[in-house]
Amino acid sequence: MSLNITNIKTSSDGAWQGDNPLNSAFPLLILQTILVLFITRSLAFLLCPLRQPRVIAEILGGILLGPSALGRNKQIFHLVFPSWSTPILESVASIGLLFFLFLVGLELDLASIRQSSRRAFCIALAGISLPFLFAAAVSFVLRRSGLGHQVPYGQLLLFLGVSLSITAFPVLARILAELKLLTTQVGQTAMAAAAFNDVVAWILLALAVALAGPSGPSSGPLVSVWILVSGLGFVAFMLVVVRRVMEWIAKKCSPAPEQAFADEAYICLTLAGVMASGFMTDLIGIHAIFGAFVFGLTIPKGGEFAGRVMKRIEDFVSGLLLPLYFASSGLKTDVAKIQGAEAWGLLAVVISTACAGKILGTFAVAMMCMMPARESLALGVLMNTKGLVELIVLNIGREKKVLNDEMFAILVLMALFTTFMTTPTVMAIYKPSQTRRRSHELQDTSQPELRILACIHSSRNVPSLINLIDATTSAAAKPTLHLFAIHLVELTDRSSSIMMVQRARRNGLPFINCFTIPGTRRAASSSNNYQIAASFESYCHASRVTVHHSTAISALHSMHEDICHVAEDKRASVIILPFHKQWTMSSGRGGGEGDGDDEGVENVGNGWRVVNRRVLETATCSVAVFVDRGFSGGGLDSPEAAAKKVCVLFFGGADDREALKIGCGMAENPAVSLTVIRFLDDSCGESDEAVLSEAKVNLAAEDEYIEKKVAAKKVVEEFVSIVRGKGFQLVVVGRNGAKIGDMEEHQADNPELGNVGDILLASTATGTSLLVIQHHDGKEMKGKETVGECSV
């Protein structure tokens, strides 16, 4: 039954009244959105093992929902995507696209582009110029085949040239992070060149739209000139006048709670500015997305304002609205239009030309810049990455009648193929670990100084970590201590993650924003990074510890690789990991049994729990899991912390011996009172006896050594009651110590803490922190190839 479009209602009266919801605009839009999200997310999950960016799943999902797959069944297709719903779907998708382009402009920092190296500039220029030359030949071939004869040659050349030469900057950043190439020479050059490429591509696309725009009675060369002049005037006004206004707004925004209402007004004003800028460029005759993009460039990149605006809209835009744009593009893509050997031959020509132009141009210039051949080739493949921007170019070309349905389908498949091939090709031809191993094979791993790699989730971890380091090292040992503190940040598909990626510095395999203390470079824009850097700077000046602070940005599934690689490269003797739960001071400081209700306990995410477990499985040095439940209270030099009560529980085994050594090291600090409690068992070996004998000799008079012989069924009850009754602020245990008595019956809820640590976590007061040690004998480190060159 055909519907009269003028009678389409926004909402239906409901099925009980005999009204089909799919004949109403809003219910149908809801169904379309659910279907699009389900298909794209399912494809993203399936492609995850192949390490493909999410944009691949979104493009494929759009094609599958279009006439190429779902559209084969006309009845279902017209039921879910009737022709009258297309303008509604495209309007909602266009709002998402408008704000996404605003985010793209927000990501691009013009100042950093101006500071790019000459090599990156030359590579970007070659990656644009040669594809344009190849596009001239492809345009000629397409016109001869009858695909482009209906449009002027100049317009076709411009659109083809932009589509072949463009590099998707956000997609490239995500691929580089996934492949751990962000701070390699290849990654640094690719990021700088892609940022410059992005700006040039948008300028060329604006030119192409202006030239293709005039149609109708008022069309002509003079109209195109007026569009170009008006567009240049708009850009100048935005970058000169509006930019200063946005700088003033950014300064007025304050993190103080009393300014929340004013800040809300400024953010709403900014979002309204996105819409107004889009309207102005549409009024001029250029697509509305250009206005949103330019407005994003006017937002100051330093400070908190840009991040706060981005957090308000990025999930809604990228997660909900943007997939609708891929769906609307897929509805226009009909692979069946590519018919016959000639059409498929043209597809092969376009793909090979796109790859050859971008890869060869980048490769040749990179070789002339004295980059190694493998790196140059990998750089060319990376610069060939396409993505959403490519789809935007193609859709605008289709709207302007420059591209017909068949040419549109060919170029969409080209974008899909070139992006899909990037990750596996780069993995095959370029492995940075191989190029670095040779320089480390003969490196001496013996060092007189103590090296600790400490991981941090947020600034809340820093005071406790500093107190732990202070307690672990005596004043005499501090000059030889090197503390490598890593702020772990999860990399996602969010634009805010890409902004962090852009600030990458060449200071270690997964690192950005290095702060080498003293002389801190306060390059971090986020307050969290600033607070962490300031805390370590103060600690460094107050003590004689050498501190290196960096920020690691990586996906959670590979974060453990980064931690282990850096531990090897820095020859760390121990890695300190924060537990995935954080206790706040409001939950009390001891005196109670157990955690009570979980008030004051924050779970930072089970993903971090998996990271800890993987580090414990793969690390080639000792690992300590630190459960902070109030250890940050007072510094060790303050009266409050003058008697930090530390306990070591010893049951036997390599991990317990390591825990005892760490405890004895703490005993050398006059601000620490140590109690060693040994639970006697017949399985105790010679190694245990030797370590215990040495510990007894080294303990000071105020320290305490206790031996306990306990009935097998009361071991757990005994050590729990001792820890509760003594009021220890820190308990040090081995992760895989000997299991005696009823300890074997316990099923750990947190295997990363071992049996003893898990029992104490569930049974002791909030004020008792835990340090769970896993020993590594270091044999595997001898002669082991290290990965990644860090220069913090």
Structure in words:
- With 792 residues, this protein is α/β, with parallel strands linked by helices.
- Helix content is 55%, strand content 10%.
- It contains 27 helices and 13 strands.
- The strands form two sheets. Strands 3-4-2-1-5-8-13-12-9-10-11 form an eleven-stranded mixed beta sheet, sandwiched between helices. The protein has a two-stranded antiparallel sheet with strand order 6-7.
- Helix 4 packs parallel to helix 20 and helix 9 (185-212) packs parallel to helix 15 (373-383).
- It is elongated.
- Mean pLDDT is 80; it is low at 434-447, 504-526, 586-599, 637-641 and 779-792.
Helix residue percentage: 55-70%
Number of helices: 27
Given helix and strand content, the structural type is: alpha/beta
Uncertain spans: 434-447, 504-526, 586-599, 637-641, 779-792
Major pleated sheet: 11 strands, mixed
**Span from first to last CA?**
70 Å
Strand residues, percent:
5-15%
Radius of gyration: 31 Å
Mean pLDDT: 80
Task: Show the helix and strand layout.
Layout: H1 25-47, H2 54-65, H3 74-80, H4 86-107, H5 110-114, H6 118-145, H7 153-165, H8 169-178, H9 185-212, H10 221-252, H11 260-284, H12 288-298, H13 305-332, H14 340-368, H15 373-383, H16 388-399, H17 405-429, H18 432-437, E1 450-456, H19 462-472, E2 481-490, H20 495-502, E3 511-517, H21 527-542, E4 546-554, H22 556-569, E5 574-578, E6 581-583, E7 601-603, H23 606-618, E8 622-627, E9 644-650, H24 654-667, E10 672-679, H25 686-698, E11 704-708, H26 715-726, E12 730-734, H27 754-763, E13 769-774
Parallel strand pairs: 1-2, 1-5, 2-4, 5-8, 9-10, 9-12, 10-11, 12-13
Antiparallel strand pairs: 3-4, 6-7, 8-13
Protein name: Cation/H+ exchanger domain-containing protein
Subcellular location: Membrane
Organism: Linum trigynum
